[in-house]
């Protein structure tokens, strides 16, 4: 357990930003080559719904393998753009599987549930997709390209966001985070699933598990998040069911930031927003930083 904790401390970090505004001020500065980006979109026949700019950065830390993954997909889901961050642990296979498959599951689920002109019930859609993803990586024959590795000890958090013209849909499983910049203020759109969160602790203990304080609260003294995809060795205490929220967009919404746990461990989300908001107010300074 001690080695496991050390790896969590020095692991990789991911941050992704999505600009959802239609304002022109400062936004063009973030798009390095608009002509090239537009040409690529036309070639892929994928049109972004609302996001004028988006990007991500990953830092591997001291590990030999990047265990986190990011997925950005525009135009695949009718009326929505798809963005997700997967914070892997124990190995990269589960996070990579989520990156490659989750958006496909969402596309299929939305298509099936909207036949007949019905609007999607997002909580049911996301719960079904996360359950299917968990089932795929938990199969006996699934190795995800890993050799001599026990997949039962691998897992990943998952925070999935669909950005539509009128709403932002968030499905969160784990301790990665999504925050919205609304009028210069950080608004949390997800809630971390930590073992010491009162309702999560109660759920774990009701299932027969325990929460042990081992350099922080952990399920069975092992995992520092109470929900994830994978982690078969910790079921049924660690579950894959996401919490889902639907937030109506406003004219003051500027951008979304997706932050993995270890990024937040080193840098507070308020500082992230202060930096980005300063760039929006003073876009002429951006060229000096790029």
From TrEMBL:
Native species: Herrania umbratica
Chain segments annotated as transmembrane: 258-279
Keyword Membrane in record: yes
Gene3D superfamilies on file: PPM-type phosphatase domain
Pfam families named among the record's database cross-references: PP2C (PF00481)
Family annotation (SMART domains): PP2Cc
Class of the enzyme per the UniProt entry, highest EC level: hydrolase
Required cofactor names: Mg(2+); Mn(2+)
Keywords assigned: Hydrolase, Magnesium, Manganese, Membrane, Metal-binding, Protein phosphatase, Transmembrane, Transmembrane helix
Gene: LOC110429228
Identification of the protein by name: protein-serine/threonine phosphatase
Gene Ontology MF terms in the entry: metal ion binding; protein serine/threonine phosphatase activity
PPM-type phosphatase domain mapped to chain residues: 53-290
This enzyme's EC code(s): 3.1.3.16
Protein family according to the UniProt entry: Belongs to the PP2C family.
